[in-house]
Amino acid sequence: MIKIVAECYVKNENVQEFKEICSKMIDLTRKNQPGNIRYELFERNLDIDMFGIEKLDGVTMFSFIEEWKDLDTLKGHCDSDYLAELLPKMKATLAKDMRLTLYKLVK
Predict the structure, then answer these.
(1) What is the largest CA-CA distance in the chain?
(2) Both ends of the chain: CA-CA distance in Å?
(3) Could you tell me which of 103, 90, 104, 99 has the C-alpha nearest to residue 14?
(4) Which domain does 76 fall in, by range?
(5) Which of 15, 56, 64, 104 could form a disulfide linkage to 6, CB 3.0–4.6 angstroms apart?
(6) In this structure, what CATH number is given to the domain that contains residue 43?
């Protein structure tokens, strides 16, 4: 099993557009990728100021949390036509490059 956390820092003026693009991406992934176990988008809750978490100025942070059966199914997603169309639009809303971290299950 492969898990991905994709951190996205979105310009505040682009948040609605980002959510709309991501909603399409999520729906298409869930519909077309049988090896996908989980594909969800979370928005950082800035109302909770715990543990000295950095304050974001002018951006809103979102994280995709994804789970894939294996690397082959993830590759199918990465090679999909809908991702090729939507990903550049999504990246255009960002304040900085998306940060992707891949994990494998240990136990």
Answers:
(1) 41
(2) 11
(3) 90
(4) 2-104
(5) 64
(6) 3.30.70.100
Query: How many domains, the chain?
Result: 1
Separation of alpha carbons 1 and 22, rounded Å: 23
Is residue 11 a contact partner of residue 91, using CB atoms and an 8 Å limit? no
- Contact in structure between 99 and 4 (CB atoms under 8 Å): no
Cβ atoms of residues 36 and 73 within 8 Å: yes
Radius of gyration of the chain (CA): 14
Two tokens, residue 8: 């996205």
Per-residue pLDDT tens listing for the chain (107 residues): 899 999 999 999 999 999 999 999 999 999 999 999 999 999 986 655 555 556 677 889 999 999 999 999 999 999 999 999 999 999 999 999 999 999 988 88
